[in-house]
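Quick sanity check, Alpha/beta fold hydrolase:
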Amino acid sequence: MADFLLVHGSCHGAWCWRDLIPELEAMGHIARAIDLPSHGSDPTPISEVTLDSCRDAILSAATPDTIIVGHSWGGYPISAAAEANPKAMRALIYLSAYVPHDGVSMVEMRRRGPAQTIVDAVEKSADGLSYTVHPDCVQALFYHDCVPEIVPFAFARLCPQAIRPQDTPLPVGEKFRKVPKAYIRSTDDRTVPTDYQAQMSEFIPADLRRTIDSSHSAFFSHPRKLAEILTELERKL
């Protein structure tokens, strides 16, 4: 049995793990999800969200026995948490996620990718502090292989994403490197190119890398399969 802490990506919240949590619980695990600052039920104003505050939310919810799963942009704050306190967690699992290079922001990591999938799909707020995904692009970017019910469920809950934490360089060093890590790559991802996921995860041992034939949102499209993969990885971490 493992204790999984689930950390969402851009514009999402704890709600996106709705279907995965019961699958993990049925396999005997503890599964918890949090809202990062300004997401879901968290009341933090977007103007106050920082990479450090996202990191601290994760550290507040983690224990030394926790396996932290970060999806998409969530790969950055979970990495920041590992760099700040590697003893606060058991391991990290990246799910279709960005893995930082030392001193590089997530925005810059995205720009270094082989394809820019979201540039034309997002709209920046008038004050320049956040962005949202254009309604016409939501399904194609995130949920193209999900059952029809998912799109209205998710669309009603998507929220603006603060830009500052994603545009903040993240230094990672020895403390980050000492935390065990695994990676789950989505092979039909239209948000983070699957080839780029493979490139970012090359430093992780081969026996701790997995693939899932899914869109960017495997927690909705293949929750049972994802739970099985997480269980398999947990036994190796």
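Posting the structure with no commentary besides this: Residues 223-234 form the longest helix (12 residues).
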